[in-house]
């Protein structure tokens, strides 16, 4: 399954549109005014289905992920010098990126790829392609990608 993640250019808070392979909107993401990043994910009918919320006052950037009201896990940036790495306390997943922080891979505890994320260049706003092996993992992988993008925005 492939998702296209596009940040909206003219928005006061973080907002994104997520499309499927046919160009249909699958999810919308709206940033909420809060201490730290708080992103709400909505389905095509406007129902809130997930949240990505930054934990403030931590040594390394950390985000909590919720599916509805249920806590799924936390993603935390690891202290590295050349390639970004993120530890996830969900299903033994781990994320590693390339030096330029454009491409990432989410792998399970056995090292099998769950999702491959690549940044498309030459767009006005951040645009990512998320290739997910199991469609059931698509929303959760998307939430971790949102956390990484929010962390990168915080640094800049």
From TrEMBL:
Q: Which InterPro entries match?
A: LOR (IPR007612), LOR_sf (IPR038595), Scramblase (IPR005552), Tubby-like_C (IPR025659)
Q: Which domain of life is it from?
A: Bacteria
Q: GO CC terms on record?
A: plasma membrane
Q: TM segments? A: none
Which GO molecular function annotation, any one, does this entry have?
Answer: phospholipid scramblase activity
Q: Which Pfam families match?
A: LOR
Which family does the similarity line name? Belongs to the LOR family.
Query: Know the name of this protein?
Result: LURP-one-related family protein
């Amino acid at each position: 399954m492939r998702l296209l993640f596009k940040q909206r250019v003219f928005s006061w808070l973080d907002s994104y549109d997520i499309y499927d392979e046919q160009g249909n909107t699958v999810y919308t993401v709206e940033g909420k005014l809060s201490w730290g990043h708080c992103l709400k994910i909505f389905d095509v009918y406007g129902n809130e289905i997930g949240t990505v919320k930054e934990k403030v006052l931590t040594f390394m950037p950390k985000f909590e992920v919720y599916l509805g009201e249920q806590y799924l896990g936390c993603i935390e940036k690891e202290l590295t010098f050349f390639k970004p790495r993120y530890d996830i306390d969900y299903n033994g997943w781990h994320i590693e990126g390339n030096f330029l922080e454009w491409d990432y891979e989410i792998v399970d505890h056995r090292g099998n790829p769950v999702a491959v994320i690549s940044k498309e260049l030459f767009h006005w706003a951040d645009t990512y392609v998320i290739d997910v092996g199991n469609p059931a993992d698509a929303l959760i992988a998307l939430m971790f990608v949102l956390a990484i993008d929010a962390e990168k925005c915080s640094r800049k």
